[in-house]
Specification:
This protein is of the alpha+beta class and 189 residues long. The chain is 32% helix and 24% strand. The strands form two sheets. The protein has a five-stranded antiparallel beta sheet, with helices on one face. A hairpin with a 2-residue loop joins strand 3 and strand 4. The protein is extended and about 65 Å long.
């Protein structure tokens, strides 16, 4: 590895290395909820019980809430093994996939961070005043909107059904024209 050599594997050899498919999340450890650094978190998924009134699910949820801990586990999804953190979120559980440590670039590895000059005391006081001025006791995520997505949605809704669609090459087609014909026409241009 890393010696500049190239290795060729057959499809069968690669298939034999893939993890076996499983619907099981294997819990390996329990840790305090703040133990995993934020930069390890990747994607989040809600985890529900396999059936209503699932006692093991309820037991895990309540035990994690009371202890302030989360589970660290592993599972297979789309032919890849993931590590994850599972913790309580409201009335259910949240599974967060985690990056492996080799996938993480640490702040210490960024040379430019070491070269940042120390600000003066007056600058720090002014910056703290600004932070205090913009500080919120509670963040309301509903306050934020994706303006582009909202404008696009309104533009789509304002179009009438007979609107003309212009394809590359200035060929016009009505919106009820067959999609395959439109694609063929775009290839002819």
């Amino acid at each position: 590895m890393g010696d500049g050599n190239m290795y060729v594997f057959t499809k069968e050899e690669l298939d034999s290395l893939r993890p076996e498919r499983s619907d099981v999340i294997e819990i390996l450890h329990f840790v305090d909820s703040d133990e995993v650094e934020d930069l390890y978190y990747d994607k989040h998924y809600f985890v529900g019980p396999t059936r209503s009134k699932d006692r093991p699910y309820s037991l895990l949820l309540n035990a994690l809430k009371r202890t302030g801990r989360m589970a660290i586990g592993k599972f297979i999804m789309r032919e890849r093994e993931y590590i994850c953190a599972i913790g309580p979120m409201g009335k259910g559980l949240l599974l967060s996939t985690l990056h492996y440590s080799y996938e993480i670039r640490r702040i210490e590895d960024i040379k430019e961070v070491e070269e940042v000059p120390d600000p003066g005391e007056e600058e720090i006081k002014l910056a703290i005043q600004l932070i205090d001025h913009l500080y919120l006791e509670e963040l309301d995520m509903d306050e934020f909107r994706d303006c582009y997505a909202e404008r696009l949605k309104k533009a789509i809704e304002s179009r009438d059904e007979d609107h003309v669609v212009v394809l590359e090459g200035e060929r016009e087609a009505t919106s009820d024209e067959n999609l395959i014909d439109m694609l063929r026409a775009s290839l002819e241009v």
